[in-house]
Inverse folding.
């Protein structure tokens, strides 16, 4: 394993997931402070000095952000920051460095397959929701809940009703290594696994 690296993500949810996936993949936690968040893509330039220092010391910078609605536009935007500030980093875009989307799209694809009926129920709910016509509401249709809400609902259905169990639904407390809920060895994670291994394993 390389001893010097930064993994830079956008938000707290990404940070929690990447820290746990790193531990799952490499069998040990990442060194403290090696994985950190920018609180949004627009703040990436603020970390240019840190990335310059890492590169100068023989380390590597990995940027893992959301692709959002247009993966090629997002890639171009981030690579332009790379060029503008003269920083070196390797780039991966959630969910799989190929499709539009975000962390939540990745999470949908790594659930324990035994729990798929929960998402099937949710999809039925979304289909019925857009059909509803609420008198006096302008304009229809009703708004489909965000993907973050879908993941929240997935965990809420699986976890118990106590306050301690409810806490485990929230992003800071989620356990992605809980195999009853998630599968970190699923094929869908192949692109992310390859990206991390390619850049962090010593040749």
């Amino acid at each position: 394993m390389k001893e010097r690296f930064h993994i830079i993500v956008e938000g707290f949810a990404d940070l929690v997931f990447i820290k746990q996936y790193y531990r799952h993949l490499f069998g040990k936690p990442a060194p403290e402070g090696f994985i950190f968040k920018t609180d949004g893509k627009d703040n990436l330039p603020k970390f240019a000095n840190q990335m310059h220092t890492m590169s100068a010391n023989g380390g590597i910078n990995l940027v893992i952000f959301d692709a959002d609605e247009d993966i090629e536009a997002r890639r171009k935007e981030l690579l332009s920051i790379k060029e503008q500030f003269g920083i070196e980093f390797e780039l991966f875009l959630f969910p799989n460095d190929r499709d539009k989307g975000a962390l939540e799209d990745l999470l949908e694809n790594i659930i324990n397959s035994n729990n798929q009926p929960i998402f099937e129920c949710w999809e039925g709910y979304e289909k019925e929701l857009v059909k509803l016509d609420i008198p006096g509401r302008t304009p229809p249709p009703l708004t489909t809940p965000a993907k973050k809400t879908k993941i929240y609902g997935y965990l809420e259905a699986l976890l118990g009703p106590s306050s301690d169990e409810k806490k485990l639904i929230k992003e800071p407390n989620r356990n992605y290594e809980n195999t009853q809920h998630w599968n970190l060895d699923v094929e869908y994670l192949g692109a992310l696994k390859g990206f991390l291994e390619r850049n962090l394993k010593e040749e």
Observations:
- DSSP finds eight helices and four strands in the chain.
